[in-house]
Amino acid sequence: MIFQLILIFIMIILAVAAVIFKDLINAVVVSAAVSLITSILFYFLQAPDVAMAEAAIGAGLTTAIFIIAIKKTERYEK
Amino acid sequence: MRRIISLIILAIIAVGFILTFSQIPFGKDKIDVANYYIKKGIEETGAVNIVTSVVLNYRGFDTLGEVTVLFIAALGLGAVLFVERKVQKNASNSEDESKRASLILRTGSNLLFPLILLFGAYVFVHGHLTPGGGFQGGAIIASGFLLMYLAFPKQSIDKKSSSVVESLSGLVFVGIGLLGLIFSGYFLTNFLPKGIPNTLFSAGIIPIIYVAVGLKVGFELTGIIDDLMGRSR
Hints:
heterodimer, A: mainly alpha, 3 helices, B: mainly alpha, 8 helices, 71% helix, 0% strand
């Protein structure tokens, strides 16, 4: 239980950081970390199916698609 | 002024959420539908994984809708990016030999790629026995292809055969639904024998549909990555 609370706390910090960062690559990486922690929490809540989907899509593919999009447009938020 | 208004609106929404959620008993099995699925799921569908039995048997039509939504999203992205790709094809042939990925990335992805494909296939073939299923397995396969795209940016999958696989698996899903309509009277009803639970060939139509969904999702997401990578600035 303590472990999960620590994870939730880290997750909130990372989510706020994702909004604050001006460098969009940093923001994307941080939000991928949020997805990863979400997937661990899903596993603790006994939902392994959702955890797998979250880890594969949220932390893996979405991050890659965002990074490709950032590479083709602009890296820094104005 | 705008900040104050948005803060007030946020506070109202928060109070609404707290009031609503405090009414709901947390962690108690008050929902009859869930209890029914847990008690009767294995017996009625033959799938040991209850999530799968809900996703593909009780709520199979919703899953068909989900697959359709993903298909339309991929189609829209392809349509938006289509114009740019033709111009780029004859432009970027001679340049950037130095842009190759590093040796470690290339060797590592050559080693890992078949294993990732195998794991993805395992996840969707065993969808009715272990956690996972078509969507998860498809996403894993697509991430394997993504690794290959990162290691070898010049090469791409054969668009023609991948779209053939994708459309065929979509047709298999709908076709099995129609066969259910013919044999048992309802769309997407199980018409095959359920077999012994906990074995690979059990649960009737569920494994067939999950293989189709896995291939479809995998190649669709790969197509999205291909569309995005192929577009130059």
